[in-house]
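Re-run with default settings, no changes from the original entry. Doing this only to confirm the output is reproducible before filing.
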Amino acid sequence: MIAAEPAPKPVRTALRPLPQPVDLSILIVTWNSERWIERCLQSIAAACDGIAYEVLVYDNASSDATLARVRQTPSPVEVIESAANDGFATGTNRVLAQSQGRFVFLLNPDCELAPGALTLLVNFLDEHPHVAAAAPLLADESGGSQREFQLRRLPTLRTFATEILLLDKLFPRNKITAHYRYRDADLTHPIRIEQPAAAAFLIRREVFDEIGPFDERFAPAWFEDVDYCRRLAAAGKEIFAVPAARARHFGGASLEHVGLARFVDVWYRNMWLYAKKWFTAGEAEELRWMIIAGMMLRCVASVVGFANGNGRWPSFRAYAGVAKKAFNRWDESPPSSS
């Protein structure tokens, strides 16, 4: 999501009375999500069979029909409207502060929950009080597994290097990537994992109270969920994937509105921010030079025709721009708004 300057206090409006008390607060941060939001909201009731829940939507100043779609849904929804796009972390923190469930479920607007999915997750955490958080298993629009997108170990300098330097493309079966992406994991039963994507993620309220909110420096999006899972691990908290709980994740809800240049700028800047926070100073500096080298490799690939559908010269300019910003350490400041 594309961030802007700090906005005036968001406007909170309840569309319908909400049940009290609730077991589960479902938090959805939207930004120009009109293609997805109805399908997402319509899937919630069947996913929460037997569970008292509330749905809260934080809208990041959508310019499309997102809010109109939300208001048309027949189920109870509470809306918080921001005057500007605050990004994912800030939006989540603000809507979390207004929620009341003993469990909090982070849900992307481009997800569709399977019947009973949230009931299974809530029951799992109730039955396993030592587990801090749980995630359903994600599939793509055609039903194919998204396990490599969704389930990963916490990144290290080596795992970053395999992706930045395109080693995972040249040697797709390499052991580092296989380990990082849980390729050998048995997903026929609940399994402990380090880092599920925040597209669909259930967390105990008391865990949020203990660990604190998302780090809003990861603006406007990407790596805030990786950072949060790292904070959970540092506090000794366990996260499980529960394969019996399912959801479809269509992907690209935000990327549809973000060009390649903007995406790679934010992605690699936030990767470096993560490294500065969690790696040694020497490792973070090594990562910065890896990013510069990786962008040069991509510039060459773009010129010779491997532009991944974004156009040869637009791709070249995007990667060259990241290399320049990485060389200048992104001026030690968040990426600019656009």
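Residues 11-249 form a domain with the Spore Coat Polysaccharide Biosynthesis Protein SpsA; Chain A fold (CATH 3.90.550.10). The radius of gyration is 20 Å.
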